[in-house]
Write a structure and sequence with these properties.
Largest sheet: none
Number of helices: 1
Distance between the termini: 162 Å
Radius of gyration: 48 Å
Oligomer: single chain
Strand content: under 5%
Amino acid sequence: MPDAQASAVGQAIRMALADDDLRHANALANKVDGIKFAAEVHQIEASINHSVASLRAEMQSGFDAMNLKLAAGISKLDARIDTKIAECQAEMMRWMFIFRVGQVAATVSIVKLLK
């Protein structure tokens, strides 16, 4: 019986060591997996950052082109408005002249009638 007990104790020690080695091996594997995972996350993050930077550059060039078109359109509209204002001023001056000439003619006629 002592051999059976020694064998059982030896097997228990071997299992304990095997469990400890297995835990140690799992811990190392988890660290390696964690490092691989961190590297993959870093690689994905770098890829996303590159894509975002590319999209920002594309959007900025689109905004710049839109700003140029908008500025050209505003310049054309500004020129049209200036032209319309000048036309209205000329028309108003013409009518003011006609009105004043009519007033002078009426005033002269009234003064002649009163004498």
